Sequence to fold (144 residues):
Amino acid sequence: MSAVLKGMGIVWSEGGITFTAGIVSATNLSLPQSANFSRTSEKTDIKGNGGTVLGQVFHGFKKVLSLTVIPYHATTVAGAIVSRDAHVLKPGTTITVADASGTLMDDSYNLLSSKEGRTVDGVCTVDLEMETSDESVALTSAVT
Fold:
């Protein structure tokens, strides 16, 4: 989509989010439709004798990313079906994400869930939910 930006600088649209893993090949293509990124942590309250919160400890920092994509194939519906099947991955798959609009979400993530969605009058979409450490700790390497 072409756009003309006037007035002030903003990040417009989904940008250029790309990802790799068991998904991407010459035939398993997708059009990212939306992305939701957050940074989260666990929190422990430190309480005094009367139960008053005197401090807080934040730990277990994570990056959480949700992507919605439309799987497609350049020439055939049968190829699009194969692409769709390839996008509905098993949890635990490592997905490496790169964002052309910045580096905040660039990382390797563990897939938590993948969900296919279809409607009577719309295109098939795949929702991918993933997370990784936000503490410079590699959580995506398999241990043998």
User: Anything to note?
Assistant: The radius of gyration is 19 Å. Strands lie at 17-20, 29-47, 53-72, 94-99, 107-117, 125-133. The chain has one helix and six strands. The chain has one domain: 17-133.
